[in-house]
């Protein structure tokens, strides 16, 4: 008995199911959307040219405008020229081969096909999520270095064993997110915009809660929940209701939502995308190469987890939203079936770089637009 090849309509349904499974595994998907008020912005087709995509972020416009019976020609104007952010994607493809058709009963074939489809879905999800963690953690321009006593340092070399993640770190992250920050070189960094992640209705009026998602690794989360200030905060927020629908929800502090995530694991047949550490290997993904994570090490080479906060527009995702799925029964002279998935992918942390002299004077020039990183020791 030979293989029955899935029809075109069913292939599309399977592709959509693969994408849905991948999204369910992705902790970033809940902060992703086409609107520019999402932490991960999906770019529409009109922004895509070939294998490259460009996002323009316009600064807020200033000036007084015109009033009363004034003509618009009297407005001094403010072009509000956007700064460009360009990046490329690439085509990823992966296959799974079925055994010889005569070695399978029809029942076992269906079960094995479903397993292999799930394997494809898991691999694509792992690859995409891993890229996002690497990109967001790479070469951060806004690093929060906070010691156990709450004092703020300049570099990760100021951290030592015991300088783990706590509410003092969250306080500094939130202060920079809400008020901006000027680094040691006198460079101003803009504040981050919050994402709306909670909706309630009171007296018939919809109200929205504004939060910053903070992705926290397992060692850092274990340290955080032992912090007395954290414990007190959770007792006061036990009825906030946010945990009912946020994947990875680990509590909230002020207007930060903690998303607890695993560490990156790739060993002994286990693949888990997760937080990047100072001992994570270099990686070349589908949107770039990411190196130099040992630069996040604390004093005496103590390993750190690279926790991070996202604001609106922290990352862009582009190109194929749904992968192509196919089945090939001509493999090995028709004796075997090959299934495959391919997808043109791109996901990159937004770092705006001005081209003109005027653009380079922008507060956004050559800085991470919506990410604040907080390395903390794991001991």
Describe the protein in words.
By secondary structure, the chain is α+β, with helices and mostly antiparallel strands. Helix content is about 20%, strand content about 30%. It has helices at about 10-25, 105-135, 165-180, 220-225, 230-235, 355-360, and strands spanning about 30-35, 40, 50, 50-55, 85-90, 90-95, 180, 190, 195-200, 205-215, 250-255, 255-260, 265, 270, 285, 290, 305-310, 315-320, 325-330, 340-350, 350, 365-370, 370-375. Helix 1 (about 10-25) crosses helix 2. It is globular and about 70 Å long. It starts with 7 loop residues before the first helix and ends with a strand. About 35% of the residues are buried.
Please give a quick description of this structure.
The chain is of the alpha+beta class. It is 22% helix and 29% strand.
Which class of secondary structure composition applies to the elements? alpha+beta
Question: Radius of gyration over alpha carbons?
Answer: 24 Å
Spell the H/E element sequence: HEEEEEEHHEEEEHHEEEEEEEEEEEHEE
Helix residue percentage: 10-25%
Mean pLDDT metric = 82
**Which segments are poorly predicted (pLDDT under 50) over 5 or more consecutive residues?**
none
Task: Please count the beta strands (DSSP E, at least 2 residues each).
Answer: 23
Q: Which strand-content bin applies to the residues?
A: 25-35%
By DSSP (H or I, 4+ residues per run), the number of helices equals 6
Largest sheet: 6 strands, mixed
Distance between the termini: 59 Å
Estimate the global geometry from the Cα principal axes: globular
């Amino acid at each position: 008995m030979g293989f029955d090849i899935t029809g075109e309509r069913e292939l599309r349904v399977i592709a959509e199911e693969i994408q849905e499974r991948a999204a369910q595994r992705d902790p970033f998907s809940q902060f992703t959307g086409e609107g520019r008020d999402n932490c991960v912005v999906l770019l529409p087709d009109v922004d895509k040219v070939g294998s490259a995509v460009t996002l323009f972020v316009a600064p807020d416009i200033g000036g007084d405008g015109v009033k009363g019976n004034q003509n618009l020609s009297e407005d001094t104007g403010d072009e509000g020229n956007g700064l460009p952010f360009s990046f490329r994607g690439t085509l990823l493809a992966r296959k799974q081969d079925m055994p010889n058709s005569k070695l399978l009963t029809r029942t076992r074939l269906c079960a094995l096909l479903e397993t292999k489809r799930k394997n494809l879905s898991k691999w694509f999800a792992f690859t995409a999520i891993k890229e996002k963690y690497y990109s967001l953690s790479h070469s951060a321009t806004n690093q929060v270095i906070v010691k156990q006593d709450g004092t703020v340092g300049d570099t990760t070399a100021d951290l030592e064993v015991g300088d783990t993640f706590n509410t003092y770190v969250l306080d500094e992250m939130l202060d920079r997110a809400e008020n901006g920050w000027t680094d040691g070189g006198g460079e101003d960094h803009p504040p981050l915009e919050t994402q709306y992640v909670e909706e309630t209705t009171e007296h018939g009026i919809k109200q929205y809660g504004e939060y910053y998602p903070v992705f926290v690794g397992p060692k850092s989360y274990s340290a955080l929940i032992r912090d007395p200030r954290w414990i007190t905060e959770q007792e006061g927020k036990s009825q906030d209701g946010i945990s009912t629908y946020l994947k990875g929800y680990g509590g909230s502090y002020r207007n930060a939502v903690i998303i607890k995530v695993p560490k990156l694991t790739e060993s002994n047949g286990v693949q888990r995308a997760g937080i990047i550490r100072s001992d994570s290997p270099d990686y070349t993904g589908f949107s770039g190469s990411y190196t130099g994570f040992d630069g996040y090490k604390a004093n005496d080479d103590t390993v750190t987890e690279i926790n991070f906060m996202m604001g609106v527009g922290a990352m862009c995702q582009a190109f194929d939203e749904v992968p192509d799925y196919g089945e090939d029964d001509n493999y090995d002279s028709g004796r075997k079936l090959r299934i495959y998935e391919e997808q043109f992918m791109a996901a990159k942390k937004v770092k705006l770089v001005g081209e003109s002299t005027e653009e380079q004077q922008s507060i956004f020039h050559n800085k991470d637009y919506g990410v604040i990183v907080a390395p903390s020791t794991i001991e």
